[in-house]
Design goal:
507 residues, alpha/beta, TIM Barrel, Jelly Rolls, eight-stranded parallel sheet, six-stranded antiparallel sheet, disordered N terminus
């Protein structure tokens, strides 16, 4: 227990509890002891305290005639000291600030719709891969339109076709008629990203390869394994791919492993030395060097609460754990054409609407994750016109809602109050913790001062990098955030309130 008793000696110091509950002296004692303090001030006579065991402790206000105490509802839970809270690396924190990314899938099924990499006998020839109008600068128009800050290109997917110049095996750009066998889509993509101010990332699937008849989790003989020599050759090919992709195109923002990477002890590639040599600062999705995680679905949404900290488990995916020892923020991936990762004919009707995309935004970026939205270049190598229009509409809607707040602030402590320039209608709040100091908040309430009374607008648990919440329209001149549970002093990087006009249902 924590007990703070002191006299009202007229020195003007905060000798009693304030409007939020505990006095600052008691709150400081609570923080220093590792207790978690929640409470409302209640006056009781100190004589009552002498006559019974009290598990509610407080700050004393002593006068010459009557001794009073302020009792705070203090839960004496041992909490993790700030030094032991999981914290992001500088690269992880910077990646979380990117928030929106563009995913680009482009492989043989685009040229042979309906073919699957497990249809080994029907594998298309490399000469079929010939996008006559391919324009990676046009792809960046989709990224810029939606407000993406990074993009991830699928350099090698299930077919095994390599979208860069390579001699590892004869199934790639060198065997394609595109640019007379001299094309390098990976290089074009990276250059377009840099011209457009978009950070480039590369996806390379190590778990399956239709040309080499390898299947998940990265075993030869169509996933059955059983041939150590053949398996070792495949591992060397994978290491060669990673050396080329990570070593030939400069600094990459993100490296994507779909389904992780088979352990070298089981026949997988020894990718860690290659990573450390060529891309030591890259964010890594899944695998033995993962610094971000899959959220557990391909719907583009994260559950709530969703924490950036997770249990110490390899290839963990899911909502995270508030007390997890490892910082591993989530990325939500989803195709813009529902259920379709690579272009298919006659699927324009499956384009997600702007309203559907905004729901994904609220439940990904607004749930402490990044959103990676897929694009489907067609056989010509271009983003289809209806899709390109939708990316722009999506970005326009994000900007319409959140480009300008009614008011915002930042600060530290259990209560942050925000005075609006004038009384206004509000219906959204964005909260952000200073995640470089860890996720400290466990529960919070957002309130507005209405007719001299604080009225609850919304509440929650996880904040992390970003929490976006909607509530009914409320006229207010003052708003406050009360942190009702935390494991260390709360530090809010941003508290912003918005008035978002309604959107027509047709969108």
């Amino acid at each position: 227990m924590v007990i703070g008793l002191f006299n009202d000696d007229g020195d003007g110091t905060n000798d009693q509890a304030g409007e939020s509950g505990c006095g600052e002296d008691l709150r400081r004692d609570c923080r220093n002891s590792g207790a978690l303090c929640r409470g409302v001030a209640v006056p009781v006579r100190t004589s009552d305290m002498r006559n019974q065991m009290i598990t509610r402790i407080g700050v004393g206000l002593l006068t010459a005639s009557v001794a009073m105490a302020v009792v705070c509802d203090v839960f004496c839970e041992t909490r993790t000291p700030p030094a032991k809270l999981a914290r992001p690396s500088a690269e992880q924190a910077a990646w979380q600030d990117l928030e929106l990314g563009l995913f680009i899938h482009y492989d043989m099924p685009v040229f042979k719709p309906g073919w699957d990499h497990r249809q080994y006998e029907k594998r298309p020839e490399a000469g079929l891969f010939n996008p006559a109008k391919l324009d990676t600068d046009q792809w960046m128009e989709a990224a810029k339109g939606m407000g993406a800050k990074y993009a991830v290109f699928v350099a090698k997917h299930g077919s095994g076709f390599m979208c860069w110049q390579s001699d590892l095996y004869p199934y790639g750009m060198k065997q394609s008629p595109y640019k007379e066998g001299k094309g390098d889509i990976v290089g074009d993509f990276v250059n377009s990203c840099r011209r457009s101010g978009i950070q480039p990332g590369i996806y390379a699937h190590m778990g399956c390869n239709g040309y080499l008849e390898v299947d998940n989790p990265g075993l030869v003989n169509r996933g059955k394994g059983g041939d150590a020599e053949k398996q070792a050759r495949y591992a060397k090919i994978c290491e060669g791919m990673l050396t080329e992709l990570w070593g030939n195109y400069g600094k990459l923002a993100e490296i994507w492993f779909d389904g992780g990477v088979l352990d070298p002890a089981k026949g997988g590639p020894n990718m860690l030395p290659i990573l450390h040599k060529f891309q030591p600062g890259a964010i890594v999705f899944q695998g033995p060097a993962a610094t971000i995680r899959w959220i557990g679905n391909e719907d583009g949404v994260a559950p709530y609460p969703c924490w950036a900290t997770v249990p110490e488990v390899r290839d963990y995916n899911g909502p995270g754990s508030p007390d997890g020892p490892r910082w591993l923020p989530g990325e939500c991936d989803v195709p813009i054409r529902k259920g379709i990762w690579m272009w298919e004919p006659n699927t324009e009707s499956r384009l997600l609407s702007v309203n559907e995309l905004m729901e994904l935004y609220y439940q990904s970026v607004g749930h402490n994750c990044n959103l990676l939205l897929n694009v489907n270049p067609d056989p010509d190598g271009l983003v289809p016109a209806p899709d390109l229009k939708r990316y722009r509409e999506f970005g326009d809607e994000i900007r319409r809602r959140f480009s300008r707040s009614v008011a915002e602030t930042s600060g530290r402590g259990e209560v942050l109050e925000l005075a609006l320039p004038k009384e206004a209608s509000i219906n959204h709040v964005i909260l952000q913790e200073q995640i470089t100091e860890g996720e400290r908040v466990r529960e919070y309430v957002v309130e507005a001062l209405v007719e001299e009374q604080w009225k609850e607008l919304c509440k929650g648990t996880a904040i992390g990098h970003k929490r976006i919440q909607r509530f009914n329209n409320q006229e207010a001149g003052r708003v406050r955030v009360r942190i009702t549970a935390s494991v260390a002093e709360p530090i809010l990087r941003r508290v912003a309130v918005y008035n978002v006009p309604p959107v027509p249902a047709s969108r």
